[in-house]
Design brief:
By secondary structure, the protein is mainly alpha-helical. About 85% of the residues lie in helices and about 0% in strands.
């Protein structure tokens, strides 16, 4: 496994002597290699899941607000088409917000905490 780690680290850094030396040093020391991979891997994916959750909830909230505006505009102008479109947009936005709040955090359960 560590020879594979060394090969992949050396292929990633390319021709740079300083980076290849650092990658070879980390790959040869098992404790450093495990610690480096574990910290980088889990922290990156955990922050990615939380950022994805925020973005999806924000998009769903924007869609829901746009739906409410269209719904109120439809009631104000007595336009059944605008009311229908507004209700559809509001419900779609609420659904996207629920997906962001309930399902996206479950992605962190799929990420293994140890390698």
């Amino acid at each position: 496994m560590y020879s594979l780690l060394l090969k992949s680290a050396l292929s990633c850094v390319g021709e740079s002597n300083l980076l290849s030396t650092a990658a070879a040093f980390i790959a040869k020391h098992k404790l450093l290699a495990n610690l480096f991979l574990l910290l980088d891997y889990t922290s990156f994916l955990t922050s990615g899941v939380s950022a994805l959750k925020v973005v999806i909830i924000a998009v769903g909230g924007g869609l829901a607000v746009l739906g409410v505006v269209n719904l109120l505009e439809g009631y104000g102008n007595d336009n059944p088409g605008a009311k229908s479109q507004g209700m559809k947009q509001f419900m779609a936005g609420a659904g996207v917000m629920l997906i962001g709040a309930l399902l996206v955090p479950k992605l962190s359960d799929l990420i293994p905490t140890t390698l």
